[in-house]
Amino acid sequence: MFNTNQSTIPTNVYGLSLKTRALAHISAEADTNRFLVGTEALREDNEIALLEAKEGEGIKFISMFSHPKEIQSITSCPFDQSLFFTVYNSGSEYKSSCWKISDTEKDSIEELFELKGHSGLIKPILCDPSGSSDYIVSLDDTNIRLWSKIDGSSKDSPTVIKTFGNLSKLTVGCLNPNISNQLATANHTNIKGWDFRNAKETFSIDNAHSEHIRDIDFNPNKPYYLLSAGDDCKLKFWDTRQTKDPVKTFVGHNHWIWSAKYNKYHDQLVITSSSDNTVKLWNVYSISSANTTNTLSKEEEEEQQKQQSPNEQQPQQQKQKKKNKRNEDQLIKTYEEHEDSVYNISWSSSNFLFSSLSYDGRFVVNNVPKEYSDILTYI
Amino acid sequence: MNSQISDSKLVKFYYSTWKLGPGDFCKEYNDDVVSFSKFLNGIYDSERSRENLKKFWEKHQTSRLGDQSDDDDDEFSNTFGDNNLNSQLSPIRNIQSPPSANRGLGAGAPSAGQTTATTGAGGGGGKDNKRVRNLLKTYYGAGIGENEPTVNDPMNIDGPSFNLNTYFENIIKSSTLPQLIAKDNEMVSEIRTLDGDMKTLVYDNYTKFINATDIIKKMKTNVENMEEGMELLSKNMDLITTCSEKINSTLSVRRDRIDQLSGLQKLLKKLQFLTALPSRLNHCLEMQAFNQAVNYYNSNSGILKQYNHIPSFQNIQTECDEIMKNMKVKLYERLSSVSTPKSDVVESAEILMNLLEPVEKVRSQYLQSRKLQTLDILSSLEKREVNSNNITDYISDLNKCFLSEYEYNTSSFKSLFINRFDGSDSNRERKQSSLQLDDFSKELFNRYLAIAKVKLSSFKDPEQKIKALEIIFSDVSKLSNSDLTSFDKINDIINSSVHDQISYYFENLQTTIKNQIYNMNNILNTKKEEALEGNFLLELSESTSKAIIQDISLLFKNLKPFFLPTETSFLSRHYGTIFTKIQVKLQQFFLFLVNIHFVEYLDIIATTPNKEQFSPRFLLVLTSICLYIENKGIGHVVQLMNEFISTVKQGINSQDMNILSFNAPDLCKRIRETGQTILTSFARLKSQKTEKILKKGLESVPNWLVLKEPRDVRPVIDILLEELSGVSKEVSKLLPTTSQTLNTHASRAQGHHRTSSSNSNSNTPTDIRKNTSNTNLSLFDKKVDLYSQVDFNVNSVMIGIIKLTLKSFMECLRLKTFGTNGYHQIQIDLQYLRMILNDMFGGNNSFEYIIQDCESTITERCLDPIPLAKSITQKICETKFQKRNQPNDNE
């Protein structure tokens, strides 16, 4: 089922013929920007497309795997690029399985095991962000499950170590890459923090949003910072130590925000996707890790500059001004390539490249505008 | 020879010889008078006149020959050649011959006259007076009227050329006897009087002579006596001189001694004064009579310095210097002490200057002490608490204290340091002094102004403030030396306080309006649903809007005092800036109100988690306020402003002000935009509520896969519709419905919905592909108007809400999986919704697209999408529709 859209001209758009909802970046491959896109068609043969985005070359189609059921979500295993989890709708119920891309046979995948025991809609599977295969976390509508170590070769299903939560309307979860064993979940309008080893609640943000929360994400570089977004069209930033009020709130989307992600390296950059068919790139410099570290180094730099020669202060100041523009918390850009709700979005291995996927099967790759990406690399 | 006589000589001869007029000559020689007189005057034309004159001359010569000797002829002609010489050389002949020049008469006349007078007989009576006068004249030596023609008359008895013989002959010949007798008598009597006269004259002279001799005799005797006296006198004088010389020589020795002694005494006195100088100075110091001490010292320091080499003098000098040093120290103390009265300070400074202390030092000391004192005064004033009523009193006090002090300082400084020098380097000094004074006064003045400003800024009553400002202005401008800098400062302070005041008003306005709106919200919150009754919402919005406008008009009222012509003439030159300020502020205010404050609520609503504080209804009322301000408020404010301008213009007449064009249309546009934004937010908020209803409805069904065959529209749709009509009702309280009213389009809408429903019903599983490809197109259209701003009418708001609700509903549907019955159920629900919405708003395509999208979505999300027969959905929906309309009809 190839899309007619394929052409030799470099393009940042790739179209799938079926409806799509699931998107995953293969984080285990650090050199290439590879993505898995899963289709969502109830009565048809679903597929998973392996796509690669290269700078200047657009999107390249790599491979296509057939998947038996419509896919709700894909999670690529950070420890093994050939492994990924899918959550899929079997018609009567939702299931989650681990798949392995076959080394020998082209365009085929093999189901390793199924994570059994869920009820209701299974949320995207969570893998250890540090890249280990020690555990995975799964969420359904009510419970959180911690699973044991995964062995990529064996077909034995990991066992459930812990089941906890017992919440209603769980929507999404996120593991904190900076604090081990910390998990945040969103149920309806509330956010909760967990120590999943002890199954204990560590923090709680009640009524974080006025409507359903659709995505949460931990700041990859600052341990206590968390973002959340949802049906009230707002993007909020939280300090988990001080949960009474959000640290920052962005309003800009016209409809529900479905996905919101921190850039892994430059956590002042955040992308959101919404059912108003747009993707937005935000700058949250004030509460990013860049803010504190850079100010220190900048001061040092300045001091050095002053000592060296006062003549060079002028260009330095001009540079400062440029930086200042970059330091403002604001919407950087709205991407409007999509014509249907954008349900999923993902950063890539490249620092400033991200992909988005809309329901009508359109997969788009975009870059952070030059004035932001350049200066960031410069730092 | 005779013929050779020239014409001029002839005329001369005629004049000297002929004693009668030219008329007589002409008669005698039978000549023409006119030509003859011409001849006489030098025009020798008339031959006849020449001949006659020659005849006259020959006749005269012949007659003379008969009287005198012949030899006279040659002489006569010589006489005519040089008459003057002859008359002097020969006086005798001069008497005999007729003299031509009158000059000769003076010398020889007396004797001749006398003789002729005595000898000659008198002529006519008229001639006698003349003759007597002439006699007197000759006697007294005066020569007047000698040139009478009668002088040469030989008949004139008194004349010098009297010819006795001719006279006698003439008388004898011409006179009768009686005449001769009479003449004789006359002459006799005349001779007698003349004799008498002579006799008296002789007698007189004689007596005079006798007297003179007597006097001479007397004098002779007297002078002889005097000589003796004189000799005696000279002798005595010699005696006196010798005596005085003697005395002088004896006394001179003593006199020198006395001189020496008196000099010594003076010196001693001076010395005594010098020795007493230290004690005297001390005394002066004790008495605080510094001035005198300085006088003493200054007058003596020169001497002391001169005799410095003498030890005792040196001692005195050192002692004096010591004292003076003390005194200087004391003076400096006095100068710098705060407690010293200001007159003493000036005195001290002056004395120090007299002591030749360095000017810079004294000057700086002086200034410092004055500064301290003035600052003292100022700070004491600053500390004073001011009541709200007496700012003017306070300011006038402040002015009285400070300005007098200030003026005293500058004037005393000027008299001390600036006006005293007149040497060569004084210009420089003076300049420096002036500079220092400038600095000094500037600093103090700034302090003063700062205090005034601070005090003023705490007052908000415009009248008081203006009065206070006026006091400051007038007092400061009264200052004699108010230079430009301080004037600028004054302007600054006036400007800033006026601007403060204006800003204050506007801040006040902002806060009051904030409060108005806050209160309005509170009312809304407390009233809750009651607010929907009657026209409450409209009244509330109007009252709030009116209150806002009222506040603005109050502001103008408050600003008026600044422009009242009588009181605030000093403000008039600031009118331009003040006015600009007001306008700018006003514009800013509206922008604040609209662009910041109102939108702020949107932010608050967006960021605060608890929605209770600001209900969507609040936004609705806010929109209505925006509309009110746009429609009426701005116009009213512009009118107010124009009125204000006209009053202001009356106040200042000719001053042309920089009237900014108060950009009302732009403001209106902005307000309208804001209103629209707010209304759109309202629609969003409302749609959130409605979409929640649908979402809950979907979620309330645990499993859409297993469901009974639908018989009716789900009740959740009714709830939705109810909510929508509630919103519609709420909005219609404040906003108009469009021209598109519901009823007129009802029938047409129904017809339309049938066709469209049949379209959608024809969707079979085989059409799904087509449908999917269609979605891209329809989604593209949707994108255009799905999130667009709503307009100020009920329909637009409602359509906005419904579109968003349906969009969200579709999103929810996408997440579900349906069984056939579930699919049917949603199909029925959608159909019913379509029917109702078409009924309400007519065939609005934007609904149709979304509803179709929803339908295609459920088809996709259905495991086995076998659409319900068209007739069944139709039937169910129509029954439901009628049921729904039934109670409405009954109402």
TrEMBL record, chain A:
WD repeats mapped onto the chain: 206-248, 250-292
Alphabetic keyword roster: Repeat, WD repeat
Region entry Disordered, spans: 293-327
Top-rank taxon, per record: Eukaryota
Protein name per its UniProtKB record: EIPR1-like beta-propeller domain-containing protein
Species of provenance: Polysphondylium violaceum
GO BP, sorted A to Z: protein ubiquitination
Classification via InterPro entries: Beta-prop_EIPR1-like, EIPR1, WD40/YVTN_repeat-like_dom_sf, WD40_repeat_CS, WD40_repeat_dom_sf, WD40_rpt
Record's compositionally biased regions (Low complexity): 306-318
EIPR1-like beta-propeller domain: residues covered: 13-282
The keyword Cytoplasm is assigned to this record: no
UniProt family annotation: Belongs to the WD repeat EIPR1 family.
From TrEMBL, chain B:
Extent of Low complexity compositional bias: 108-119
Keywords recorded for this protein, A-Z: Golgi apparatus, Lipid transport, Protein transport, Transport
GO terms (BP aspect): endocytic recycling; Golgi organization; Golgi vesicle transport; lipid transport; lysosomal transport; protein transport; retrograde transport, endosome to Golgi
Polar residues composition bias: residue spans: 77-100
GO cellular-component term (any): membrane
Localisation: Golgi apparatus, trans-Golgi network
Keyword Transport: yes
Region (Disordered): 61-129, 743-772
Keyword Transport: yes
One protein family per Pfam: VPS51_Exo84_N
Family: Belongs to the VPS51 family.
Job of this protein: Acts as component of the GARP complex that is involved in retrograde transport from early and late endosomes to the trans-Golgi network (TGN).
Assembly notes: Component of the Golgi-associated retrograde protein (GARP) complex.
Protein's UniProt name: Vacuolar protein sorting-associated protein 51 homolog
UniProt organism field: Polysphondylium violaceum
